[in-house]
């Protein structure tokens, strides 16, 4: 198996995992991964049902969007993925879904506040929401402008610390070090959206989790002081 074949297999598995986890309905979603050494991106083919896909069906493009090989046509969201790969150096996989609860927040043009430690364990601060695309942006290169919109929203933010975003009126995108990590972050984003929606239903005026608790939970799992799991001994 070549490196490209292995990447196709990785992306195929990521896409089928989105179905298994209940994060996509029909063909509403896609996952991709990048081989930065070769400048290639593998992504789900456009409009193909997940049940009928095979690893060899995965589409391949370069970072300028040129199709490589004779495979199926890439997802219509490919330009969005490419903008993220070009702007966020540390990511290796991108996932787009229309998972219900995260999409509700996106449609409301509302960020997901950090209300509890489940959120803080995975996302540093709220999950941000973009502005709406302008009419000119929608009439232009819509999918590419969507990627640029996400990059714009992350000015001053660390995309590795907050590996997901809500596109206003649309749906979520998530990313990670590789395709499987992007799928995991997409699942976490959906679950914290579900928890936030339920919490706000119980108390619409609730404030964010205190900053010092957010910081503690995030740093337990991320960064040089992380000790969650088997890698480090917790401080005494």
In short:
This protein has 236 residues and is of the alpha+beta class. It has eight helices and six strands, in the order αβββαβααααββαα. The protein has one domain: 3-Layer(aba) Sandwich (L-fuculose-1-phosphate Aldolase).
CATH fold description? L-fuculose-1-phosphate Aldolase
> Any idea what the shape is?
globular
Number of domains: 1
Q: Describe the largest sheet.
A: 6 strands, antiparallel
Order of helices and strands: HEEEHEHHHHEEHH
Given as residue ranges, the uncertain stretches (5+ residues, pLDDT < 50) are none
CATH class: Alpha Beta
SS elements, strand count: 6
| Count of DSSP H/I helices | 8
Strand order of the largest sheet: 3-2-1-4-6-5
Architecture overview:
This protein is of the alpha+beta class and 236 residues long. The chain has one domain: Class II aldolase/adducin N-terminal domain (L-fuculose-1-phosphate Aldolase). The protein has eight helices and six strands. Strands 3-2-1-4-6-5 form a six-stranded antiparallel β-sheet, with helices on both faces. A hairpin with a 4-residue loop joins strand 1 and strand 2 (40-43). Helix 2 (78-87) runs parallel beside helix 6 (142-153). The longest helix is centred in the last third of the chain and has 24 residues, at 179-202. The radius of gyration is 18 Å and the shape is globular. The model has no long low-confidence stretch (mean pLDDT 94).
Topology:
Elements: H1 3-20, E1 29-35, E2 40-43, E3 59-62, H2 78-87, E4 93-97, H3 100-107, H4 117-120, H5 135-139, H6 142-153, E5 164-166, E6 172-176, H7 179-202, H8 211-221
Antiparallel strand pairs: 1-2, 1-4, 2-3, 4-6, 5-6
Helix pairs in contact: 1-7, 2-6, 3-7
